[in-house]
Amino acid sequence: MTHLTLSVLTQDKLRLELRRTKGGGKTPILCIPGLTRNAGDFEDFAPRAAATGRDVYAISLRGRGGSDYDRNYLNYFPTTYVSDVSAALDQLNIEKAVFVGTSLGGIITMLAAAAAPERVAAAIINDVGPELAPEGLARIGGYVGARATGSEDAGITLDEAVLQIRAINEAAFPDKDPAFWEKFARRTFEQSFEGKWKLAYDPNIGRALIEAGPAPDLWRPFEALAPIPTLILRGAISDLLTPPIIEKMRAARPGFSYCEVAGVGHAPTLTEPDAWSAISAFLQTFD
Q1: For residue 160, how far is the Cα from the chain centroid?
Q2: Which of 54, 168, 200, 267 is 20 to 30 Å apart from 183, CA to CA?
Q3: Which domains does the chain have, with CATH numbers?
Q4: pTM for the model
């Protein structure tokens, strides 16, 4: 199954990349990646999800992957992304979608449910909650902030990119083989015309993370999911979404479906056997 690359425009005329995998006439799926990630993260998940009878769209947010970078880096903020996602749905003529959000994508999903609940047919939130564990935030801020201060290499080989991405992420994905890490690197870096590999996101995302201040309060947006079918996934060794946070979420919004994905941290790829089993069963509960 192949994907088609599309583009849409934000309200401030930036071009955003989307990848569409055709699947059928059920409510489509919109996949939203994490902080420095892009649509490529869903290239294994999308064909599986499309096989359930739904078109699948994966978006690269502004400043990531094949999407335009923003000259005003303070626009790299969750409320801006919610507006971008809404504009994308409008241009695709999609009234509502199943939102699949990993990390930052899950935050965007919660905010979208609060702003326009009629557009969120269901929510699959991957390894993030309305509260973020400080140890996970510190880890993410460490590697994203380092690039913002210019400590990244101007261009490296693919082998060096693999080593770099493995050093950052091996604790979250123990016992993975070399093929896994090469695929991970190819989704994280892009190759320049000179043959060098550079991280596929705007380093100013790190500046925004440092300077723009905390994300909006997420407890009310999370509670806005109450009438919306919701599946929460947590990596069993995640340092961002911890068991105490899950218990607070259960108290605030009882009744969501839940899956703990064995042997991985932040964030599951969504194709792990237990993750996919939970997702496929969840998708079968509505059109």
Answers
A1: 25
A2: 54
A3: 4-134+214-283 (3.40.50.1820)
A4: 0.96
